[in-house]
Design a protein that fits this description.
There is one protein chain. The chain has one domain: UDP-N-acetylmuramoyl-L-alanine:D-glutamate ligase, CATH 3.40.1190.20. Helices cover about 40% and strands about 25% of the residues. It has helices spanning about 20-25, 40-50, 60-70, 85-95, 145, 160-175, 185-190, 195-205, 210-220, 220-230, 270-280, 285-300, 310-325, and strands spanning about 5, 10-15, 35, 55-60, 75-85, 100-105, 110-120, 125-130, 150-155, 180, 205-210, 235-240, 245-250, 250-255.
């Protein structure tokens, strides 16, 4: 079984169930996007949503994926940066409780937060104050962390510090690791397309994207994007929500159908799809089974609010994985 190391923006998610999209318009937050905000705007949004139902969990895209992998029994680690505050303690303890090895740099800044505004139709919009999350620097990375793992999973939001991403990829290559990258968000891809392409061409073995991110990355519709992305990356995964997912390796394309399920909240769907897919990959399963497990994980998480499923739900997931492995 391969060991997986994630690197990403260490954030605490504050999940807020809004009753309409007026709050998004009031704060100029495009629905379905991730927008970076300063501490003042973050506090204003929180002040204006205090009457809505809220929950808190450790988060950030890759942290969600790594948490899911650890709950499935994978030897998993996480690299990030938090503040020396109670919020940072909460983040670290939440990952450790799942069995994740944490490699955290603790700064004097406040721990970052991601306000996750969940619309009545279950679409989520992020207003993210990065805080200490962006204070992870290339010099903080210890080569020993990489030598202890076999797969590096990189969060696309880190591309704003291209030197950090490249250093992580270089250390991974020196340790003969497989490198997987998630493209993060369509607006981030649009802003940093050239940097993403440089990293993908030089280092990436597995590339994850949703349809909007794939189109932003290539400039063409998602099915054409699958072909283009497959020319430079060994394995491409395009997630398409209710339409399932497409996997491309070499000249082989596999379509994974999604099962219709009740959707409470789409938060974490892509992150937990990656958990399931990488679980299959790390345990030596074929490509179709990797996709089926990823799809099953995504379907489970959208049935709850937030990206953290219970131990009971993971017990059911592990049983379902056994059925997928056995086949019809």
């Amino acid at each position: 079984m391969k060991r997986i190391l994630g690197i990403g923006n260490a954030l605490v998610d504050i999940l807020i169930l809004i009753d309409d999209d007026g709050i998004l318009e009031a704060f100029d937050l495009p629905k379905g996007s991730m927008q970076l905000v300063d501490i003042k705007k973050s506090e204003q949004i929180q002040d204006n949503t205090r009457n809505f139902s809220q929950t808190r969990s450790s988060g950030g895209s890759v942290a969600n994926t790594i948490h899911g992998l650890a709950m499935l029994g994978i030897d998993a680690g996480y690299i990030g940066s938090t503040g020396k505050d109670a919020t940072g303690d909460f983040f670290e303890n939440d990952l450790k409780a799942a069995g994740v090895k944490t490699y955290l740099t603790r700064r004097n800044s406040v721990t970052g937060t991601a306000l996750t505004l969940i619309s009545p139709d279950s679409e989520r919009t992020f207003a993210t104050h990065l805080g200490a999350a962006v204070e992870l620097h290339p010099g903080d990375l210890d080569p020993a962390w990489f030598r202890e793992h076999d797969i590096l999973y990189v969060e696309g939001y880190l591309i704003t510090d291209a030197a950090l991403v490249e250093k992580a990829c270089l250390l991974a290559r020196e340790s003969n690791m497989t490198i997987a990258l998630d493209l993060a968000s369509y607006n981030v891809v649009e802003a940093y397309r050239d940097s993403f392409k440089k990293i993908a061409d030089r280092y990436v073995d597995i590339l994850f994207a949703n349809e909007m991110e794939a189109e932003a990355f290539t400039g063409v519709p998602s099915m054409q994007a699958l072909d283009l992305m497959g020319n430079s990356v060994e394995l491409v995964v395009i997630k398409a929500g209710a339409n399932g997912s497409w996997l491309r390796k070499g000249k082989k394309t596999i379509k994974i159908d999604a099962t219709p399920v009740r959707c409470a909240d789409t938060t974490g769907a892509g992150d937990l799809y990656a958990s399931g897919f990488l679980y299959g990959y790390a345990t030596g399963m074929d490509l179709e089974k990797c996709g089926l497990i990823g799809s099953m994980m995504a379907e489970k998480v959208i049935g709850i609010t937030g990206a953290r499923m219970s131990k009971t739900e993971f017990t059911e997931i592990i049983n379902n994985i056994g059925k997928i492995v056995q086949g019809p």
